[in-house]
Design a protein that fits this description.
Number of strands: 9
Strand order of the largest sheet: 1-9-8-7-6
Shape: globular
Mean pLDDT: 83
Distance between the termini: 36 Å
Number of helices: 5
Largest sheet: 5 strands, mixed
Strand content: 15-25%
Helix content: 25-40%
Radius of gyration: 17 Å
């Protein structure tokens, strides 16, 4: 069978969607592509506005930001949205799914349930997935990478296999949120742990399917050590550089 997806790496600069965000045009990286995947950091998107880590301090603020997210996502019209920095509970993904379906049509999107039940009193976040039901279906359950150093609940590095319904072709989407930078950048070694764990998990991913898309908020530029480690493994192809040799 001819394969249409290849093992590659998409390293995205995923800025958080804030109250001031408006939909922006996406780069045309592949005119012949059949499946569109968007990775996005939602910057502490919590349904619990009383959580001190929540970006939104009132229900009105949450409603406004949700509207901005939905407007941007509707414009993107992706088959899969891979999201990080969302509250570590199923409710938040259900909320986003319902908001998307209200804008795009009932039943357009579904979310991958993971049965997480958070006490919602802390700043714990996770990676989650929305997908377009007419074109995509998930295969199996969400898995966590070995390089996820933040403990059981944080789930910053997660992946799952999807199938394109029209062809039966399968591929793995790995969404990652590497350790953030600080003023003194003590998180540098942890980003390298993230990167090494990601590469170490590739064999587990490819056992599901050899075609792997890696994306996420990796909190470093292409020239920094974690990114160079990923690019130089020999297993992944940097897609931004493939389409634009001067990408930074």
């Amino acid at each position: 069978m001819r394969r249409y997806f290849y093992t590659f790496l998409l390293l995205c600069a995923t800025c958080a969607i804030s109250h001031a965000t408006l939909p922006v045009p996406l780069p045309d990286l592949g005119k012949d592509a059949r499946v569109k995947v968007v990775g996005q950091n939602l910057h502490n998107y919590f349904l619990n506005v009383n959580n001190s880590f929540s970006e939104d301090k009132t229900e009105g603020a949450l409603k406004t930001r949700t509207s901005h997210i939905v407007n941007a996502f509707k414009e993107a019209d992706a088959d899969i949205f891979a999201l990080c920095e969302v509250e570590a509970c199923d409710d938040v993904m259900k909320h986003l799914m319902e908001a998307m379906n209200e804008a795009c049509g009932a039943g357009t999107y579904a979310y991958v349930a993971d049965s997480k039940v958070n006490d919602r009193s802390n700043g714990i976040t996770k990676v989650g997935f929305l997908y377009k039901k007419a074109t995509i279906k998930p295969i199996g359950t969400i898995q966590t990478n070995s390089g996820d150093t933040e403990g059981t609940w944080f789930n910053r590095m997660r992946w799952i296999t999807f199938e394109e319904i029209s062809t039966g072709e399968r591929f793995v989407v790995s969404m990652n949120h590497f350790k953030a930078k600080t003023a003194s950048d003590e998180g540098s070694s942890r980003r390298m742990t993230n990167a090494k764990g990601l590469v170490g998990t590739l064999s587990t991913m490819t056992a599901q399917d050899p075609d792997v898309l890696v994306l996420g908020d990796l909190n470093c530029t292409i020239s920094e050590e974690p990114m160079q480690y990923l690019v130089n493994t020999g297993h992944l192809e940097e897609q931004l550089l493939r389409y634009d040799a001067s990408a930074w």
